[in-house]
Each structure stands twice: as C-alpha cells, then as structure tokens.
Design brief:
Radius of gyration: 16 Å
CATH topology: Aminopeptidase
Helix content: 40-55%
Order of helices and strands: EHHEEEHEHEE
CATH superfamily: Gcn5-related N-acetyltransferase (GNAT)
Strand content: 25-35%
C-alpha cells in the first residue's frame, strides 16, 4: 500500500465535499432525512465546517490522501506553537479499516515526538476512530459538546 499526501487545491472541492458527505450522510439518514432535504443540510454543514476550519486554523495544511494513485480522503493538520493539531481525517467508505489512518496517525505522532510537541484532536464520542487514537496513546482530556478532546504527549 502506497500512501501519499498532496496539497488540496480548489479543483479538489467536489471530491472533498463527497468525502464529507460519505462520512456525515449516514448520521442524518438515521434521523430520517433523505433526498433534497438531506442534500441541502449536508451542503450547509460542509460550508459551516470549512468556514470553521479556515477561522480556527489559518495555518492549517489541507491534504488529499492518495492510496496507490487514487484519491481516497482528506487529511488536515495544523502546527501550532505548543502542539500539533490533527484537525480532520476523513476517508471514503471503501478505504476505511484498511490501515490508511493508522499509517498517517503513526507518521504524525513520529513528527510530534521529533518536535517534542503533543498531538491534540477532537473526535465524536461515538466515532470508531477513537480506538485508533487510543492505540497511539491519546487520552481524553475533556468533553466538548458531542466530542472528546484527546491529547497524546510526546514520548
């Protein structure tokens, strides 16, 4: 498995939105939304997320995850003065659970150790990715709404 990260460009917006929809649509479908109402809500949620990321992490790096030459997800990180922030990792459904996230988080944790900075992230309380983060030594620091703020100290 060959994983690369390339800078996201404006041309990637439709792909990035499709990744967002693949992650979030099941939540809203479970609440009974479908069709145009679901599409409109997801589009609004996507714009709100992007606006938040731009404001909260102006130094953030937005990358497209490429596996064996195929775009499979998005990886957003930010290097802050006192920490590295894993802002977002999202994969298309067919590429989840295959070690892509493990490989990326492992590399990010190595970078953090080299810089002697902790890694901080937020994860939804019911997100299965939380188990991945815990395997890397992330611990819950606090509850923030429906998210856990997790931190991994450099070893």
């Amino acid at each position: 498995m060959n994983i690369e990260l390339r800078p996201a460009t404006d041309a990637d917006w439709p792909f990035i939105e499709s990744v967002f929809v693949s992650v979030r649509a099941p939540e809203f479908e479970a609440a009974g939304l479908s069709g145009e109402a679901l599409a409109n809500l997801l589009a609004m949620q996507f714009r709100a997320q992007r606006s938040h990321y731009a404001r909260a992490y102006p130094e953030g790096e937005d990358r497209i995850i490429v596996r064996d030459g195929v775009d499979v997800g998005e990886w957003i990180t930010a290097e802050l003065p006192d920490e590295l922030r894993l802002v977002d990792i999202s994969l298309l459904p067919d590429y989840r659970g295959q070690g892509v996230g493990t490989l990326l988080v492992s590399g990010f944790a190595e970078r953090a150790r080299a810089l002697q900075k902790p890694v901080v992230l937020h994860v939804e309380m019911n997100n299965p990715a939380r188990r991945l983060y815990e395997r890397f030594g992330f611990e819950i620091e606090e509850e923030v709404g429906m998210y856990y703020r997790m931190r991994c100290q450099p070893a």
